[in-house]
Specification:
alpha+beta; 4-stranded antiparallel β-sheet; flat
């Protein structure tokens, strides 16, 4: 498989773009890992018993914002969680979201 360039489109519109480096077993495994993680997140988010815990920054001020949301669902896994982390950049008098990432805890 080395030497092949392009992208791999998996389920749910997840695309692993590999247009600048050759595909190899490691690249394909990374794409599969992305798909597995995305399915795990979706299973938690769509569970009937999903619970959310929200963490705020600058609580009770005019710049209050959500910094992370932790999702759990006992029906998916009694110990697993998916945490959405939001990062912000200060643009004068307000904050704008500059990044969103997910952390999975099995």
């Amino acid at each position: 498989m080395s030497g092949i360039r392009g992208s791999i489109t998996l389920a749910d519109g997840i695309t692993y773009d590999n247009s600048t480096t050759a595909l190899n077993a490691e690249n394909v495994q990374q794409a599969i890992d992305i798909l597995v993680n995305q399915n795990f997140i979706n299973n938690i988010l769509n569970a009937f018993d999903v619970m959310k815990a929200v963490t705020l920054a600058d609580q009770n001020t005019c710049t209050e914002r959500v910094t992370q949301v932790q999702f759990t669902a006992a029906s998916v896994s009694p110990t697993a969680s998916a945490t959405k982390i939001l990062t912000y950049s200060n643009t004068g008098y307000e904050y704008q979201i500059s990044g969103i990432s997910w952390v999975l805890v099995p």
